[in-house]
Amino acid sequence: MDRGTLGDASSPRLGVEVRRAGGSAVLTPIGELDFHTAELLRLPLEQALDEGVVRLVVDCSGLEFCDSTGLNVLLGARLRAEAAGGGVHLAAMLPQVARVFEITGAGAVFTLHDTLAAALQE
């Protein structure tokens, strides 16, 4: 998987940077993750899993908003990663995004980290 950014002029509200760090795929969504942009995160998550990378780290430091569609993309990736012996780690969530995970209870099913560095150390 090469480092890159996904997104286009028709969906400028979300970009996703993708890179490898050791045995992890690190995905950094920047902007708003919602019904209209969720596919831009789902595709690289699935690509990493298809390539055999089962430890996914999502750096949420640039994620300004996440709705239920975005949450479902992350939950779907978690199910696939765990079925393959891995998992999805979420790092550095902004308070407004962390609140969505708190309200829905989804925070209990992900491994959460305060920083990207902490997520990569584990």
UniProtKB/TrEMBL annotation:
Residue ranges occupied by any STAS domain in the UniProt entry: 14-122
Gene3D superfamilies: STAS domain
SUPFAM superfamilies according to UniProt: SpoIIaa-like
InterPro entries the UniProt entry points to: Anti-sigma_ant (IPR003658), STAS_dom (IPR002645), STAS_dom_sf (IPR036513)
Protein name per Swiss-Prot or TrEMBL: Anti-sigma factor antagonist
Species in which this protein is naturally found: Streptomyces polyrhachis
Top-level taxonomy: Bacteria, Bacillati, Actinomycetota, Actinomycetes, Kitasatosporales
Source domain of life: Bacteria
Family that this chain belongs to: Belongs to the anti-sigma-factor antagonist family.
